[in-house]
Design goal:
alpha/beta; 371 residues; Rossmann fold; seven-stranded mixed β-barrel; globular
Length: 371
């Protein structure tokens, strides 16, 4: 079946349908990871976005039941150069096309993803529409231009849990029993679109984890009496969730806090800082970040469209990590309170494990009261 992708700047791509049929609008971004398309598809941080994979051959290992990062995919659409219809992997349970159909996710294949990526890289991320029903250029262009921009939208409410729940499962290991919580300390985790591998690594570090909805209040968190608070990743503009910002503001100084990705941005806003939208965002599993205290370079997994302006938080925080591609703020630590945050994903999934030491640092901060 034919499929058409039209960008808000008028660029058009004609390809072949993959996954569900219909019509879908979203912000088009590109991801530079070579592997891990299943984890990317199920990352709630992609809510409202159409993800383009720069690696040309996607789907060759199918989809299994262990590597999902949430209960279902939340992204708006999926774009690949060449889809593999005959996957081969001993863990495969379904092919990629079947997985997308099952979860009503639209995809398009057979287009020039290098041309698309260069467009986004040179002129910035922009809205796009995928359709298998309407192939008229002017009609699709009007639809995409009328669709609201992502700035200011509250996408967190579309991916957060509705009730608190306990998470006890550690990281999955082949041919071994999955570890469960050792119960050395309690962590309250905000679900703004939390990835499951974050929860697994918190359990691995010895935490009893209770996950709270993004709309939980400071009183809800303190009633649980945790030793630490975790602020999760999530989709969209951090300024679109003022209720989370206010809650975090009321927790700073009362309990140790770690923030990742959107949690890093929310923490920056709670401290009176400013965030801004990046031209095309950071999405991939190969982004170099320098740790300023040691000079060590970590290769990191990233997925965000916004960043914290370091100058707006310098009165209270020191920058700890910077992105070597564009110099943006990738981490900060509070000078007075046991609070630190990072912009990238130490849990990876997909991606390298260079930064997993940060979960151990969180544990030590809880034990010592020092970041």
């Amino acid at each position: 079946m034919k499929a058409t992708l039209v960008l808000a700047d008028g660029t058009v791509f004609r390809g072949v349908s993959m996954g569900a049929t219909g019509e879908k609008v979203g912000e088009v971004v590109f991801n530079t990871a070579i592997t891990g398309y299943q984890e990317i598809l199920t990352d709630p941080s992609y809510r409202g976005q159409i993800v383009t994979m720069t690696y040309p051959h996607i789907g060759n290992t199918g989809v299994n039941f262990e590597d999902n990062e949430s209960v279902l995919p939340y992204l708006a659409g999926f774009v690949v150069r060449e889809y593999c219809p005959h996957p081969s992997n001993w863990r495969k349970r379904i092919d990629l096309d079947g997985f997308l159909r099952e979860h009503s996710v639209m995809g398009i294949q057979g287009i020039d993803t290098r041309r698309l990526t260069r467009n986004l890289r040179e002129t910035g991320a922009k809205k796009g529409i995928i359709s298998t029903e309407d192939h008229d250029y002017e009609s699709l262009l009007n639809k995409v231009r009328e669709y609201p921009d992502i700035e200011g939208l509250d996408l967190v409410k579309e991916v957060t849990c509705s009730e608190p729940y306990d998470w006890e499962e550690g990281t999955w290991r082949w041919n071994e029993a999955t570890p469960t919580s050792a119960g050395r300390f309690r962590v309250a985790a905000f679900d703004c679109g939390i990835k499951q591998n974050i929860l697994r690594l918190l359990v691995d570090s010895g935490a009893d984890v209770r996950v709270f909805p993004a709309f939980a209040t400071a009183e809800d968190i303190l009633e649980y009496n945790p030793e630490g608070v975790f602020l999760s990743n999530g989709p969209g503009d951090p300024e679109g969730v003022p209720y989370v910002i206010e809650t975090v503001r009321n927790l700073i100084g009362k309990i140790p806090i770690l923030g990742i990705c959107l949690g890093h941005q929310i923490l920056g806003l709670a401290l009176g800082g400013r965030t801004y939208k990046l031209a095309f965002g950071h999405h991939g599993a190969n982004h170099p970040v320098r740790r300023l205290d040691t000079g060590q370079v970590e290769i990191t997994s990233q997925n965000h469209n916004f960043a914290v302006d370091p100058e707006t938080v310098r009165s209270e925080c020191d920058v700890t990590h910077i992105n070597l591609n564009d110099g943006t703020n990738e981490g900060m630590v509070h000078r007075k309170y046991p609070v630190f945050s990072i912009q990238y994903h130490p849990e990876a999934s997909p991606g390298p494990h260079d930064s997993r030491y940060l979960f151990e640092r969180f544990r030590k901060m809880i034990e010592t009261g020092r970041p």
